[in-house]
Amino acid sequence: MSPLHIKKGSNKHSAYNLRPNFSDTTERHTLAVLVDNEPGVLARVIGLFSGRGYNIESLTVAEVDHTGHTSRITIVTTGTPQVIEQIKAQLGRIVPVHAVHDLTVEGPAVERELALLKVEGEGDKRVEALRLADIFRANVVDSTLNSFVFEITGAPDKIDAFAELMRPLGLIEIARTGVAALPRGL
Amino acid sequence: MTRQMTGAKMVVQALKDQGVDVVFGYPGGAVLPIYDEVFQQNDIQHILVRHEQGAVHAAEGYARSSGKPGVVLVTSGPGATNAVTGLTDALMDSIPIIVLTGQVPTFMIGTDAFQEADTVGITRPCTKHNWLVNDTKDLSNVLHQAFHVATSGRPGPVLVDIPKDVQFASAEYTPPQKARTSHYQPQVKGDMQSITDLVAAMETAKRPVFYTGGGVINSGPAASQLLRELVEATGIPITSTLMGLGAYPANGEHWLGMLGMHGLYEANMAMHGCDLMINIGARFDDRITGRLDAFSPDSIKAHIDIDPSSINKVIKTDIPIVGDIAHVLEDLLQVWKSRGRKVNREGIQKWSAKIAEWKKVDCLRFEQKGAVIKPQHALARLEALTKDHDRYICTEVGQHQMWAAQYLGFNDPNRWMTSGGLGTMGYGFPASIGVQMAHPDALVINVAGEASWLMNMQEMGTAMQYKLPVKQFILNNERLGMVRQWQQLLHGERYSSSWSESLPDFVKLAEAFGAKGIICKDPADLDDAIMEMINHDGPVIFDCLVEKHENCFPMIPSGEPHNKMLLGDASTKGAIGSTGAVLV
């Protein structure tokens, strides 16, 4: 019997040889998806990403028009330019999706995220945490003798930076909302 | 005037208002109220299948052959889960079908009730859209929307899940004219600038080729008509995918035959060597393209498709046009004519001469000698003896499917029903039942392999019950032929589980259902046997014993581009000569 000698990644032995020769540099895009707020619509969007192997970095959703029952889903995703185009086209195919906006290419956009951070500490660390919170314009929304909960709003990298600083000062828990975004100007 | 009625009655009323005359289905606890209403009327005929998968494939056959959406009615739980294969098949091949499923009452959803399944959850990835109707007052609106979504844009399957209490409760019926119009309105007109760009490319191209697909068929008869006009007027050669056969006639002057993994040599060579590829309603499927980085290296690629997600999915397109094929072709022809009907005559003449050389290779030639019927011969004879009939062909999936595509000629759209994208064994027989329902007087033949055919053989009961004279033309090689072929070429001739053992006696099987069975193993008897099949007024199982180890050629080995085709067993032996080449 002849052995098969198949190298990993080889497509010679397979009935499937799809290796698109598109660029493989990845980009990060923020998409705003306007949908009918009907049961299952979020599952359709998420199922599309998992079913086709796309990435989700963050996702937020809420009804934004209570009379028209439309929701806005903001998705931050990464992929090659070709995959990003596919994601937009595939989202556009979902029947309850009204519009897909790529805020990354449609001009400058404001991106904001809210985070709650619980920091445990006493003495100097506690003072330092408060001082840094002031610099980052984070608010104290809960306080005990040995802990704070800070509320911070900003672009995701600002929250990342704040969280990094809080880590050695006793950060024990963090909750983030994911990105909400709107284009700048009219 | 308000029209109060029960949800169950609404279903029947909505189907009538949508012009439905036949429903394929299987009853069960959660759809009994609807079946009760179906019983009390005569406008819609219900065809009782023997398995829900059969119902969906029958509806697909009905839809593909008639251009009208197919309708399925099944119960909750297992009824719905058995429909999943058919739904996925219809999604992959863009077939408009509406599947209505019963569901446990709303107040029992989520309690693991008897025959409860999360039908909309299970079918979300395999439908174009689906709905769970929680209130009878929404039901008629949703049903009309379901027809709209299934049939507009790129067609596809939809599912409406109707809990039993919603079927019993009453509400006002909304007729289709008053139904809430969906915001879902896909773009049908193509961008005029892109169309003009394509015309300009067509005017100068030296080696242009049309590469057409199922989208032309789905767009309707007008699209096929316009395509023919365009091809005849320009003289540009045309090839088609498996799904698009019949849009341009197989006896047409510019026809190259099917392309792809088992496509014709001249078609694939033309795709490889062209300088302008005009994709009309096809999707660069992996069975078509072969190796992507060597796919048609020197061509400008134009792509007309109603689905924007099909464009630039795997192949970069230079001229993308989003729109309905018929609309775009109409504009394209008009622009081309208004610019003076120009083509590069000299270039196309040389190109046609090159193609004529490729045709001389005669890649489909075979020799029928000896006492055993070659499958190619069986199909060549079937073609010769049935081509003048009002004929519809279905297939199962495998070698016989490729041979049918190669050796049968399709001169009109909607005459060829095959499972392309999903490759569903067991598709063809129930599909032939759906086709015969849509065309009661036509000759409907399902070209099958014995293994595929057994997957839905229970539908013999359906064919007999409704006196549907479908002809089951089984090329019996006692093998899972395509699997065996791949194992021979790629897996060192280790034939793992690829033969059919303990096969039934197909003649006795036919007789057990009260149908006619014919067995044929001698090439000398073949013509008479086929004529006997055609002339029998009723379902026939035709057991055609064929050469067991015949391989399907031409073949593009995987990982190779179009110009590296294997043409027959001799070239295969060369290709797998060294150890490394076992991989082909």
UniProtKB/TrEMBL annotation, chain A:
Catalyzes the conversion of 2 pyruvate molecules into acetolactate in the first common step of the biosynthetic pathway of the branched-amino acids such as leucine, isoleucine, and valine. It is an enzyme of class 2 (transferase). SUPFAM superfamilies: ACT-like. GO terms for biological process: isoleucine biosynthetic process; L-valine biosynthetic process. Belongs to the acetolactate synthase small subunit family. GO terms for cellular component: cytosol. The keyword Amino-acid biosynthesis applies. The keyword Amino-acid biosynthesis applies. Its EC number is 2.2.1.6. It catalyses: 2 pyruvate + H(+) = (2S)-2-acetolactate + CO2. PANTHER family: ACETOLACTATE SYNTHASE SMALL SUBUNIT, ACETOLACTATE SYNTHASE SMALL SUBUNIT 1, CHLOROPLASTIC. Residues 30-105 form the ACT domain. This is Acetolactate synthase small subunit. Keywords: Amino-acid biosynthesis, Branched-chain amino acid biosynthesis, Transferase. Transmembrane segments: none annotated. Pathway: Amino-acid biosynthesis; L-valine biosynthesis; L-valine from pyruvate: step 1/4; Amino-acid biosynthesis; L-isoleucine biosynthesis; L-isoleucine from 2-oxobutanoate: step 1/4. Dimer of large and small chains. GO terms for molecular function: acetolactate synthase activity; acetolactate synthase regulator activity.
From TrEMBL, chain B:
InterPro entries: Acetolactate_synth_lsu (IPR012846), AHAS_TPP (IPR039368), DHS-like_NAD/FAD-binding_dom (IPR029035), THDP-binding (IPR029061), Thiamin_PyroP_enz_cen_dom (IPR012000), Thiamin_PyroP_enz_TPP-bd_dom (IPR012001), TPP_enz (IPR045229), TPP_enzyme_TPP-bd (IPR011766). Belongs to the TPP enzyme family. Residues 195-332 form the Thiamine pyrophosphate enzyme central domain. The keyword Magnesium applies. Binds 1 thiamine pyrophosphate per subunit. Binds 1 Mg(2+) ion per subunit. One of its GO terms (cellular component) is acetolactate synthase complex. Its EC number is 2.2.1.6. Coiled coil: none annotated. This is Acetolactate synthase. Its cofactor is thiamine diphosphate; Mg(2+). The keyword Cell division does not apply. It is an enzyme of class 2 (transferase). CDD domains: TPP_AHAS (cd02015), TPP_PYR_POX_like (cd07035). GO terms for biological process: isoleucine biosynthetic process; L-valine biosynthetic process. Residues 5-120 form the Thiamine pyrophosphate enzyme N-terminal TPP-binding domain. Pathway: Amino-acid biosynthesis; L-valine biosynthesis; L-valine from pyruvate: step 1/4; Amino-acid biosynthesis; L-isoleucine biosynthesis; L-isoleucine from 2-oxobutanoate: step 1/4. It holds the Pfam family TPP_enzyme_M. It catalyses: 2 pyruvate + H(+) = (2S)-2-acetolactate + CO2. GO terms for molecular function: acetolactate synthase activity; flavin adenine dinucleotide binding; magnesium ion binding; thiamine pyrophosphate binding. Residues 397-544 form the Thiamine pyrophosphate enzyme TPP-binding domain. Keywords: Amino-acid biosynthesis, Branched-chain amino acid biosynthesis, Magnesium, Metal-binding, Thiamine pyrophosphate, Transferase.
